[in-house]
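Possible regression after last week's pipeline update?

I re-ran a chain I had predicted before the update to compare outputs. Posting the input and the new output here so someone can diff against the archived version. Not blocking, just want to make sure nothing changed silently.
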Amino acid sequence: MQPYLNLNGDSGVRGYAIGPQAIAVEFGDGSVYLYTADSAGTEAIARMHELARGGRGLNTYINRYVREGYAERLR
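New output (post-update):
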């Protein structure tokens, strides 16, 4: 897991791991969710990759657009 930069300072995201057509996101409560192109859509995964690398906006994006679009809860 890569630490999330959290440039706004108020994100619920702690870390992430980017894979081909997927991203695993660790939240502040320790839960980890896997989002895939099949579960959330290719465009959403590409955008989540950008936001994760940029360190800003990932939690907001998930809450607005892909909240229930995860493939699996990993932890």
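Follow-up from reviewer: compared with the archived run. The longest helix spans residues 42-54. Marking as no regression found.
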